[in-house]
Recover the amino acids of this structure.
């Protein structure tokens, strides 16, 4: 279970850090998508910051700060539920899979992080004698 937690969380970190960078850079597809779902361009830096903060929180979770990692995963789950809601509200269905994929990663990271709270998974397999 520990390996699944690390791998899934690392993928979630990379995905969110990557899209945060793209958001900060105001890539053309980001601007087009935000206009299509009626999200003001002025919101992009804050939305990118939230994604980056989620990625940093997940990193801290991997480093042993479990509560921060779980809080970050919860934040990302809520963020991407909001993103999907924005797509549905704007009736933009053709690319709702994007936030859906990020939501799936965030949920998987959350479930695996929460599962690590059990005593059996309390220690990394590398540390078990």
């Amino acid at each position: 279970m520990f390996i699944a937690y690390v791998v899934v969380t690392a993928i979630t970190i990379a995905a969110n850090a990557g899209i945060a960078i793209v958001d900060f850079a105001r890539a053309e597809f980001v601007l087009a998508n935000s206009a299509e779902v009626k999200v003001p361009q002025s919101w992009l830096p804050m939305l990118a910051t939230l994604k980056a903060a989620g990625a940093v929180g997940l990193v801290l979770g991997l480093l042993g700060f479990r509560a921060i990692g779980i809080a970050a995963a919860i934040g990302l789950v809520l963020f991407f539920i909001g993103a999907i809601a924005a797509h549905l509200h704007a009736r933009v269905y053709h690319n709702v899979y994007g936030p859906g994929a990020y939501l799936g990663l965030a949920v998987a990271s959350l479930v695996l992080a929460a599962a690590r709270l059990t005593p059996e998974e309390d220690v990394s397999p590398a540390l078990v004698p």
